[in-house]
Amino acid sequence: MKTTSILDSENKVQLYKVAFWLALFTIAYNTIEGLVSTYLGYEDESLSLFGFGADSFIEVISGIGIAHMVLRIQKNDNSTRDSFERTALKITGFAFYTLVAGLTFTSIFNIWTGHKPETTFWGVVISVISIAVMWALVYGKVHVGKKLHSDAILADAGCTRVCIYMSVILLIASGIYELTGLAYIDSIGTLGIAYFAFREGRECFEKANSDALCSSNCSC
User: DSSP strand E in the chain: where?
Assistant: First the structure.
């Protein structure tokens, strides 16, 4: 019986290491995705791709909070959200709201002026890669969360799905424009990204002001 307990403890430590490395990978991937997407979005004058990249930078801040959370619950499963996490959530929420304001204003301006991107090819490529990577991350987090019986990690996996939704919006908007050259579709796609960014921002403030693992916007 004692041997089983030791083995379980060792497995638990390994699973927490996996959870932590998933958080670090998320930070690294979003940093690269943000740099590439904002650069190509600016060069191709694609607001949806640029906004997608800006969102990735905000996800980096969120990822730092998640990495800290994994270390916290590893030490104490029953511990509640600490001041570092609450501060990170508030900063992330404010950044999301700022992004929403910028994307919404620019989208309306582009529709008003009839602005079109030069190409949305890279939006298609990046969104497909992002969907694959985020799906793998959700799968990994759910697997680890279930093994650890950790509602916190499962809640994070649920919220990671929002990144998939944004990637799908980018893929649809970029794909339609590449195939048809349809006016304003890039701006409409941007408004879709802004909508989910708003939901994420609201969720961050809800979490920052409570100990609930999930908000009304997060599919846990």
Answer: none
